[in-house]
Amino acid sequence: MATALLGGRASAEGDAVAAGSLPCDLYAAGGTPCVAAHGTTRALYSAYSGRLYQVKRASDGATRDIGTLGAGGYADAGAQDSFCAGTSCLITVIYDQSGRGNHLTQAPPGGFQGPAAGGYDNLAEASAAPVTVGGHKAYGVFIAPGTGYRDNNTNGIATGDQPEGMYALLDGSHYNGGCCFDYGNAETNSRDNGNGTMETIYFGNSKTWGYGTGSGPWVMADLENGLFSGVNRGYNANDPSVSHRFLTAVVKGGPNHWAIRAGNAQSGGLSTYYDGPRPNASGYNPMKKEGAIILGIGGDNSNGSAGTFYEGVMTSGYPSDATENAVQANINAAGYTASPPAGAPAVGSRVSLRATTSCCTADYLRHNTADNNAAIGAVSSSSPSADKAAATWIVRAGLGDASCVSFESAAKPGQYLRHYDFRLRVDTIDSGALSRLDATFCPQPSHNGQGVSLRSANYPSDFVRHYEYGAYVASHGGSHAWDSATAWADDTSWVVTSPWA
């Protein structure tokens, strides 16, 4: 079918094709070609029609590559939805579109261990970051703490003091102060090899090494042993807090010269927050870049960060501002818009959560009156007021991740639904990062088409499930009894209803 481009955007009839000349076409035209190009939402070359990413299905361990709808096109999200229907999937590979084989896979242990088997980092849940691009459904890469991707054996990535550029398109509302949500050039042994052995984009509100104006988050550069917002360690006044829902973040560097730029990915241009010499601290001039690629973690596999990645590239050579401005115009034209799951609970609302399994459609998630455990139980208009209150929740911004939600008990103010040894309970939450993540759940499209499913913020494969009337966080077909594959899709799907109390 012929495609008619209207003002740089694909027509409704030619809906497989993304907007205009794509980012890596523009970098090549500027003399700084892409040497790595990663995106789960669209092609980054106008001629690219290959694989974007791979997903692995929990029900049977099968994998499927997700490609584009056509050359230079958007992701075929429908293929993922069909393949993952009734179960959950993880993103196992983010393919490099440059042809150099710089694919991102599960990050191995390094200076820090990850939470997955063998000290590896977790993989991202494949449907956790739904988005619309050019009117097409797609999925980003949702990085929860403990999640990370890496390639320590790359081809063509800058080393030493060689010049390079990079951009990442991120969710500007999803961040934390953990170290470190990075994309870019890192150490090849997953360890801290000293000042200047990294050059990545950082996004978050950590103030440990550097920061800008306001309370954050900031786009900064992770150059190892320092998040730099300008020429100085610590505070730099020209690096502003940014909060665009879709954020374009740029870092580039060459011999004794580097820059930070950023802008709203939905409209407008890029602003330059820093452009000047390398930091006035020892070890950063000349740089000692090693050429690995990381996503969602620090160079030594520090993995306490959170963020969402949609697309990004790394270049050979130091791109001009004009080239980056053209790339930003293309990103604007791509038409990124938020796509929250239908039926997700709104922060500040009071809700009840009804089970959808055929046995239990009159049952609601509630806490027990005899102990702190959560369960499901029948609630109706004739139920005692205490039972109605026990099945009512106040939706709060996620205690461990503000892009998700937490459920405060209406009957026990100040206590929240959380998992502990996989069992759900209602508890007081302390200030520790782990307990706050245990009380945080991320709504996403339901596994059976009814309501939503609620993913654990710190266990990407686990969802809120009822099993033999108890309540757990459960994976599909895992090692525990409550991970049983029988009725898993129904048991992990919940309809958000009006509150009983």
From TrEMBL:
Gene3D superfamilies cross-referenced by the UniProt entry: 2.60.120.200, 2.80.10.50
CDD domains recorded: beta-trefoil_ABD_ABFB
Keywords: Glycoprotein, Glycosidase, Hydrolase, Signal
Alpha-L-arabinofuranosidase B arabinose-binding domain residues: 353-496
Start and end residues of each Alpha-L-arabinofuranosidase B catalytic domain: 23-337
InterPro entries: A-L-arabinofuranosidase_B_cat, ABFB, AbfB_ABD, AbfB_ABD_sf, ConA-like_dom_sf
Record-stated family: Belongs to the glycosyl hydrolase 54 family.
Annotated PANTHER family: ALPHA-L-ARABINOFURANOSIDASE B
Name of the protein: Alpha-L-arabinofuranosidase B
Source species: Streptomyces achromogenes
Lineage of source species: Bacteria, Bacillati, Actinomycetota, Actinomycetes, Kitasatosporales
